[in-house]
Write a structure and sequence with these properties.
The radius of gyration is 44 Å and the shape is rod-shaped. The protein is built from two helices and no strands. The protein is mainly alpha-helical.
Length: 107
């Protein structure tokens, strides 16, 4: 009847043939998946990731700007306070000097 193509368990190469068939099916499935773009990130996913990164960068930039502005305000306030203190000290010295001279004239 001709050659038998079917795999028979009695065949000494049965295990090897089954393994080859399984490997061939897996290989074809792999090629089909690759050709279909399986495993690649979609454009929508890429865009969402980019938007998320840009949003976080913008937020971090705003927070840094707020911190810098707050530090600037603190420094300005501190400088104004020191300026007021220096003004008051100078005024006290002038008043003390004026009283000292006034007392000299009275003697």
């Amino acid at each position: 009847m001709g050659k038998q193509i079917l795999l028979l368990e009695g065949d000494p190469n049965f295990g090897v043939r089954v393994l080859l068939v399984v490997l061939a099916v897996l290989l074809l499935a792999g090629f089909a998946g690759f050709a279909a773009g399986c495993g690649q990130v979609s454009d929508q996913t890429k865009q969402e990731a980019n938007n998320k990164v840009e949003s976080k960068a913008k937020q971090a930039k705003q927070e840094a700007k707020k911190k810098v502005e707050a530090k600037g305000k603190q420094a300005k306030k501190k400088l104004e306070t020191k300026g007021q203190q220096a003004k008051q000290e100078a005024k006290k010295k002038i008043e003390a000097k004026g009283q000292h001279q006034h007392q000299k004239k009275q003697r």
